[in-house]
Amino acid sequence: MNISIKNKTLFFISFIFVVFSGIFLTVIYSQTQNRLELLELEHYENIKFMHTKLTNKEIEFYTNRINANINSNGVREALLAKDAQKLYDISLGRYTTLKNENLNFISMNFYTSDSNLLVDMKYQKLYGENVAKNFNLLQEVQSSKKLISGFEVFDNTLAFRIIQPIFSNKEYIGAIEFSIEPQYILNQMDDYYGVQGVLFVQSPIVSTKDQVNLNGFTLVYNILDSLKLLNGISNTYNFETIKKIEIDFNEIYSAYSFDIKDKDENILAKLIFAKNITKEVLDSKKDLNNVALLLVLALIVTLILVNIGFNKSIRKLENNYGDISQYKSLIDGNLITLSTDLHGNIKEVSDAFCNLSQFSKTALEEINIKSLLHSDISKEEYRIILQTLKEKLYWSGEIKQERKNGDVFWVDVNIRPKFKKNKIVGYDTVMHNITEKKINEELMITDSLTQIHNRRYFNEILPRMINSVKREGGFLTLVVLDIDHFKEYNDTYGHIEGDNTLVDVATTIHNSLKRPDDYSFRLGGEEFALLFKSTSKNDAKIIVERIRQNIISLEIKHEKNSTLKIVTASFGVVTLRNDALVDWGAMYKLADDKMYMAKKSGRNTIEF
What we know:
The protein is of the alpha+beta class and 608 residues long. The protein folds into five domains: 5-52 and 281-319, no CATH class; 72-181, Beta-Lactamase (2-Layer Sandwich); 184-276, no CATH class; 330-439, Beta-Lactamase (2-Layer Sandwich); 445-607, Alpha-Beta Plaits (2-Layer Sandwich), CATH 3.30.70.270. The chain contains 18 helices and 22 strands. It has helices at residues 5-70, 75-80, 84-101, 136-144, 183-193, 227-236, 278-308, 310-319, 321-334, 351-357, 361-364, 379-392, 435-444, 455-472, 486-493, 495-512, 537-553, 584-600; strands spanning 105-112, 117-120, 125-126, 148-154, 157-168, 171-180, 196-202, 213-214, 217-222, 242-248, 251-261, 267-276, 336-341, 346-349, 395-402, 408-420, 423-433, 475-483, 519-524, 527-534, 569-577, 606-607. The strands form four sheets. It has a six-stranded antiparallel β-sheet, with helices on both faces. Strands 8-9-7-12-11-10 form a six-stranded antiparallel β-sheet. Strand 8 (213-214) and strand 9 (217-222) form a beta hairpin.
């Protein structure tokens, strides 16, 4: 079926407009989500600030009440005399006032200097057992002789406790404790700031029968007005710091979780506050819908205007066909692209790629893309690229290639499959020349004197090699070597000759390693390192011994050497199997220690 140029143009404009609209709406949606996330984070920080402010306020309030009670006539004398009845009678009025002021005020307790519970105002207990062994905060007060506050579970009760030491004539005679239920925090946040919440306590602390349980925590306190919100938290929440909970289409909340910990940082409970963000979410959706409607109207108006003026425009398009062809040539000359079939045979290639690779189009057509890859790229790496294309339908990364004259160039590559009738028939590749960038990167990891890798690259590649061997199996060998008596060499022959010797030794080490994943480094001064995979410890011994002999074979004169009168080196070697590998810092220390053992053993030796 023949489609007129007019209809093709209208379709093309519609398609471009739809693509643009999709991108634009995606950007708008992303910005909207970012604003909502920032809003949620702002709510979280505000609630965190309010929670901290209220907690500090309560500590100050009850500290004042504690001091007032301590300074009441007869309190210190009764505590010193361990007169529980008198202490109870003196404190009863103040205890009753505190209970009336705050229904969540649990208890007022007095403890003797030897950790016995003297008075429990709540249960009217007089002179009880020694409790310090199970009461960490009380132990800390007795040790520090300072006011301590915090959450603790004692006697199967989670409470916020404020404990103040009591002194008589500067002598510690006991302590007083105020305890408040955690629900007080929820009530205060609701009363002062209109923020509601719930409290889940570690299940072993409380009975879990017929109560809401969530990931090892039990709902104990709840002041939420919405049962749906409570169900939403119970069914979908996992104590994330910030999470959006949509309980129905028109009601959306942000839940914020805070840990309640004891003084040892053990989590005792989870405090969850909820903020209604329905208006903000619906406003965002409304804005997005309005933008979409405007785009649709704009498309309709655009198509009408294009259709009205099409007859005139089509003539211009036909006249400008030659300009379009020229534009295509401009793209072909500047955009680095190629297309291959399923087997990697090149079918199409841009002029820009020909200029970069120095191959002609004729030479490139029908050759396999693998022949352009640098020899450093292993079969396994090529297989991973093909596997990724098969599974994810795209691959991107950096690839090292060779020009016709053998020079190396680097490209940043994006490969995607090419479809025909819903079947993959080949791959399209778009590239960006990053050769200059890779050269700069190579300079950053290369020692300027010896031209082998530097300490910076050593710190980067050693952890990577450890992880690789852990995954793939086998042995990893790290060698640390140090030129013997190099300070004396510099003192005798001068620093210029010293530098020349460092270069000669580095070149020998580098040339002694043949495989792509063998690495040599100058760590600093006269200290070098080698890193390579091996099939066994014996294999590693053979390689290191060969390098030691190659350094001797240089026959660089060194009269101050205590072994031979030529330049030698001492080697520390660590070879570990994949299941015995440690972290890179520990492995380096092992090799370094072995090298110093080789020094102590007479130098020009290898310590395994």
